[in-house]
Specification:
single chain, about 625 residues, alpha/beta, ABC transporter transmembrane region fold, Rossmann fold, 2 domains, 6-stranded mixed sheet, 21 helices, 10 strands, binds adenosine-5'-triphosphate
C-alpha cells in the first residue's frame, strides 16, 4: 500500500523572520518586570552573582599564564636558593579562584532554580486570575484554548528563558574580558573566530525557527492528545469507556497523534544533528588555524609559553562562549516570541463590558425583568439560539420554560444571568438595562443551578458551599441549605456526614447516585439570599417522591421571589405561574397551564404527548 505523504505540522505555521525575532526581544523588559515582581531580592542576588562569575575565567587563564611563565623561568635557573614564594602565591590564588568559581556556579543555579519555581507559581496564579475575568463564550472558543494552553506552557518554559537571558548577559561580559586579551595580541584572531562560528549560528537559528513553528503548529493536536489521555484513563470516563469498549478507539487515536509528533520531531532532530556536526567541524578548523598561528609565533620566540596557553585558552573559551551566545540568541528570541503568546493571553479582554458607574442590584426587585426583542447567537454559530424574544418576568413570578431540545431555554437563562450579552435587543431590570448593574452583585443575587452542574471532588459541605463560597465556614447555613434541598438526610447517612469527601478521585471519597448529586447541587441555590432563582432541569434525576417534595419546598422557599424553572416534566412545569414555550429560539406561547391547554397549541400538544405516555 502506498504511504500517503503527510505534510509536516509546522509547514502550516509561518516562521518568524529575523526582524520579527529582534522585535520579539522587546517583550523581554516586560518579562523581567514580571521576574522582578516575583521576587526582587532573588533577582538582584542573581545579577550580582553572575557579574562576579563572568570575571572568573579570564582571571584563571591569566594566573595560569603567570604560573607557566614563572615555572619556565624557575626551570631555566635551577638554583635551590631561588625564592619560590611568588609561584606558590600564584598557585594559591588560582586554587582560591577555582573554589570561588565553583561556589558561584552552585549559588547561581540555586537562585535560578528558586526564582524559576517562584516565577512559575506567580505566573500560574496570574493566568488563573486573568482567566477568571474572561467571559464564558471566550472559554467556548478553541482559538482561545490554544492561547491559554500556550500561556500555560510558558509558565514552565519561561523559567528556562530566564536563566538563558541571564546566562547570555553573563557570557557577554566574560567574552568582553577575554576578547580584550585576544585583541591585544592579534585582532585577526577575532575575525578567524567569527568565520568559524557564523555558519553554526545560522544553522542553529534556522532549526530553532523550525522547531518553534512545529511546536506552535502542534498546539491543537497536543490538546487533543491530552484529551485522549484523559478519556482513556480517568475516573469520570472509565464507566462509559468500558461499556462502549472505547479504549481501542482512544488508544488508536492517541497512537496516531503521538506517532505524528514523533515523526515530525524526528525528522527535524535528525536534520539538526547532521548539520550541527558539519558546523562543528568548521568551528574546529577555525580554532586549529588560530592555534597553529599561535604555536608558530611561540616557536619564533615572539610569545612566551605562558602567552600561548593564555591565548589558546582564551580563544577556545571565546569560541565556545560565542557559539553559546549566538545559538542562545536564537533560543532567547524564540522564547521571546513565545512570550508574545503569553502576553497576548493577558491582552484578551472580557467582551462583557462592566459599567463604569454600576448601579446596585435592586433589593428587592420592584418590577422584574423585561426582554425586549432579544436575539443571541453563539460566537461559533450562524444560527440564532434566541431571537425576537419579548416578555416580562414579573417580580415574584414563577416562570417555567418549555421547549424541545435545543429550543434555547438554557441560552435564555444565561442571558438573564449575563453570562452573555444579547446581540439584538436588550434586557431591562426594573426599567434599566441589565448592563448598567454591578455584574458581581447581579450574579450574587441570581442563583442558578445548571443541568450540567459540577460534581466537585471535595467534601459534602464544600459541594454545597460553592453556591456562596464566602460562607464556606458557615456550617449552620450549609446545613440549612441542605435541609431545603433534601440533601440533609443524605449527609446523615454518610460516614463522615458533612465532611465526607465526595467522588472517587481522592482517598476515601464516596460516589453518590445521580439524584443524590442533584440534591447536593440544588442546595447550592439556597446558599445565598438570591432575588432570582433559576433551576435548569434541577429534578430530572430525582425520583417522583423527591421531586414532589422538592417542589413543595421550592414554592414555599421562593415565596415572593422570582424564579425560572426549566423542565421537561409537565408535573413540575404546571406548578409555575406562567409557562413560556420556546421553539427554535423564539417565543411561541406564554400563559398559565390552564390558558395554554385551552389554547390547544404546542404546549397542549406536548402535554398530551407526555400524559399519554403515563396512561
Ligand atoms: N456553547 C454553545 N456554542 C454554540 N452553540 C450552542 C452553545 N450552547 C448551545 N448552543 C446551541 O444553541 C441552541 C440552543 O441551545 P440551548 O442549550 O439554549 O437549548 P435548550 O433549550 O436548553 O436545550 P435542552 O433542552 O437540550 O437543554 C442549540 O441549537 C445549541 O446547539
Amino acid at each position: 500500500m502506498a504511504r500517503e505523504k503527510r505534510p509536516l505540522l509546522y509547514n502550516r505555521v509561518p516562521q518568524p523572520t529575523l526582524k520579527e525575532k529582534f522585535a520579539a526581544l522587546r517583550n523581554l523588559p516586560r518579562f523581567f518586570a514580571l521576574v522582578w515582581q516575583t521576587n526582587c531580592w532573588y533577582t538582584i542576588i542573581n545579577a550580582v552573582l553572575r557579574i562576579a562569575k563572568s570575571a572568573v575565567p579570564v582571571a584563571i587563564l591569566y594566573i595560569g599564564k603567570l604560573i607557566i611563565d614563572q615555572v619556565v623561568l624557575l626551570a631555566k635557573t635551577p638554583d635551590s636558593n631561588t625564592d619560590h614564594t611568588y609561584l606558590w602565591q600564584l598557585v594559591a590564588a588560582e586554587f582560591v579562584l577555582a573554589i570561588v568559581s565553583d561556589a558561584l556556579s552552585r549559588a547561581i543555579s540555586l537562585v535560578d532554580g528558586l526564582l524559576g519555581d517562584l516565577f512559575s507559581n506567580h505566573t500560574s496564579v496570574k493566568i488563573m486570575e486573568h482567566a477568571a475575568t474572561l467571559d464564558l463564550d471566550q472559554f467556548e472558543d478553541s482559538a482561545f484554548y490554544d492561547k491559554l494552553e500556550r500561556a500555560r506552557q510558558q509558565t514552565v518554559g519561561r523559567t528556562v528563558l530566564l536563566s538563558q537571558v541571564l546566562t547570555q548577559v553573563q557570557d557577554l561580559i566574560t567574552m568582553l574580558f577575554l576578547a580584550v586579551g585576544l585583541m591585544a595580541f592579534n585582532p585577526w584572531l577575532i575575525l578567524l573566530l567569527l568565520i568559524a562560528i557564523v555558519p553554526a549560528f545560522l544553522g542553529e537559528s534556522y532549526f530553532n525557527d523550525q522547531s518553534y513553528a512545529l511546536t506552535r503548529g502542534q498546539t491543537p493536536q497536543r490538546r487533543e492528545l491530552d484529551y485522549m489521555r484523559y478519556l482513556g484513563a480517568s475516573d469520570e470516563t472509565a464507566k462509559e469507556v468500558k461499556l462502549f469498549d472505547l479504549s481501542g478507539f482512544l488508544i488508536k487515536r492517541f497512537k496516531a497523534l503521538s506517532q505524528q509528533f514523533y515523526a515530525d520531531n524526528k525528522s527535524l532532530s535528525t536534520r539538526r544533528a547532521a548539520w550541527g556536526s558539519l558546523f562543528a567541524i568548521l568551528g574546529s578548523m577555525g580554532y586549529y588555524a588560530a592555534y597553529i598561528i599561535m604555536i608558530l609565533k611561540t616557536v619564533e620566540g615572539s610569545l612566551s609559553i605562558g602567552d600561548l596557553t593564555f591565548l589558546a585558552g582564551s580563544f577556545r573559551q571565546l569560541r565556545s562562549l560565542l557559539e553559546g551566545i549566538l545559538s542562545r540568541f536564537s533560543t532567547v528570541s524564540q522564547g521571546a516570541i513565545y512570550l508574545r503568546d503569553f502576553f497576548d493571553f493577558f491582552e484578551i479582554k472580557p467582551k462583557i463590558k462592566v459599567s463604569k458607574t454600576p448601579l446596585p442590584f435592586p433589593n428587592p426587585i420592584q418590577k422584574g425583568f423585561v426582554f425586549e426583542n432579544v436575539g443571541f447567537r453563539y460566537a461559533n454559530s450562524e444560527q440564532w439560539a434566541n431571537r425576537y424574544l419579548s416578555f416580562t418576568l414579573h417580580a415574584g413570578e414563577k416562570l417555567a420554560l418549555v421547549g424541545e431540545n435545543g429550543a434555547g431555554k438554557t441560552t435564555l437563562v444565561k442571558l438573564l444571568a449575563r453570562l452573555y450579552d444579547p446581540e439584538e435587543g436588550r434586557i431591562l431590570l426594573d426599567d434599566i438595562d441589565l448592563k448598567e448593574y454591578d455584574i458581581l452583585q447581579l450574579r450574587k443575587h441570581i442563583g442558578v443551578i445548571f443541568q450540567d452542574y459540577l460534581r466537585y471532588q471535595m467534601s459534602f459541605a464544600q459541594n454545597i458551599a460553592v453556591g456562596n463560597i464566602d460562607e464556606q465556614n458557615n456550617r449552620p447555613l450549609i446545613i440549612k441549605a441542605a435541609e431545603k434541598s433534601l440533601a440533609n438526610l443524605l449527609a446523615m447517612k454518610l460516614p463522615n456526614q458533612y465532611d465526607q469527601a465526595l467522588g472517587r478521585r481522592f482517598n476515601d471519597g464516596i460516589e453518590l447516585s445521580g439524584g443524590e448529586w442533584q440534591k447536593v447541587a440544588l442546595a447550592r441555590a439556597y446558599m445565598k439570599e438570591a432575588e432570582v432563582l433559576i433551576l435548569d432541569e434541577p429534578t430530572s434525576a430525582l425520583d417522583a417522591r423527591a421531586e414532589y417534595e422538592v417542589f413543595q419546598r421550592f414554592a414555599e422557599l421562593t415565596k415572593g421571589k422570582s424564579a425560572v424553572l426549566i423542565s421537561h416534566r409537565f408535573s413540575t412545569v404546571r406548578m409555575a405561574d406562567r409557562i413560556l414555550v420556546l421553539e427554535k429560539g423564539q417565543l411561541i406561547e406564554l400563559g398559565s397551564h390552564e390558558q395554554l391547554l385551552q389554547q390547544n397549541g404546542r404546549y397542549a400538544e406536548l402535554f398530551q404527548l407526555q400524559a399519554k405516555g403515563y396512561r
